[in-house]
Write a structure and sequence with these properties.
Elements: H1 2-20, H2 42-53, H3 59-63, H4 70-73, E1 83-86, E2 94-97, E3 100-106, E4 109-114, E5 117-121, E6 133-137, E7 141-147, E8 150-155, E9 161-164
Antiparallel strand pairs: 1-6, 2-3, 2-6, 3-4, 4-5, 7-8, 8-9
């Protein structure tokens, strides 16, 4: 039950933070962040929002040059640790179509980067976007490091580091 409450809080935070960034021009092609000048920043936007809310997103998903990983969000066959493909979008999910991810903020509404500006749109819900891929953050225990005879594990459920062995 505790992990479920934490997931609900994180996904609500993802939607809220995305909405707060509407109007931002921090993710334009001319900006240095993420993969750099001249590169799309859709992944950078989605990744920063998710990390700010407490959801794990690998740095590859944010900083890849060129941003080939943008397509990972829209590929059902690609595993993104901590993010499960689901059928029905809810606020805080990531919806991706044609290589462009967006944060679901409400029914038929999402936030993504459009022409260098963060905007609330219907990306992923438009006519023709029926094959959009929806992913939901699903925290679980993940193994991050093995040191000598001791196993160190970080639990995303509790946020604790557990040493065993």
């Amino acid at each position: 039950k505790q992990w479920y409450q934490r997931r609900v809080a994180i996904t609500a935070g993802i939607a809220k933070i995305a909405k707060l960034k509407v109007g931002s021009q921090d993710f334009g092609l001319q900006k240095e962040k993420g993969p750099g000048v001249g590169q799309p920043k859709h992944n950078t936007f989605v990744g920063e929002v998710c990390l700010s809310a407490g959801a794990y997103v690998s740095r590859r998903m944010i900083n890849e040059i060129p941003p080939q990983s943008t397509g990972d969000w829209s590929d059902r066959g690609t595993t993104i640790p901590g993010w499960n493909v689901v059928v029905y979008p809810q606020p805080g999910d990531i919806i991706a179509y044609n290589g462009i991810p967006a944060v679901v903020t409400s029914h038929n509404t999402s936030v993504t980067v459009v022409d260098g500006v963060v905007r609330e749109t219907n990306w992923g819900f438009r006519l023709g976007h029926e094959n959009a891929v929806v992913r939901r953050f699903m925290p679980k225990s993940v193994q991050v490091n093995i040191v000598g005879p001791k196993r160190v594990r970080f639990s995303q459920r509790s946020g604790e580091t557990i040493t065993a062995g």
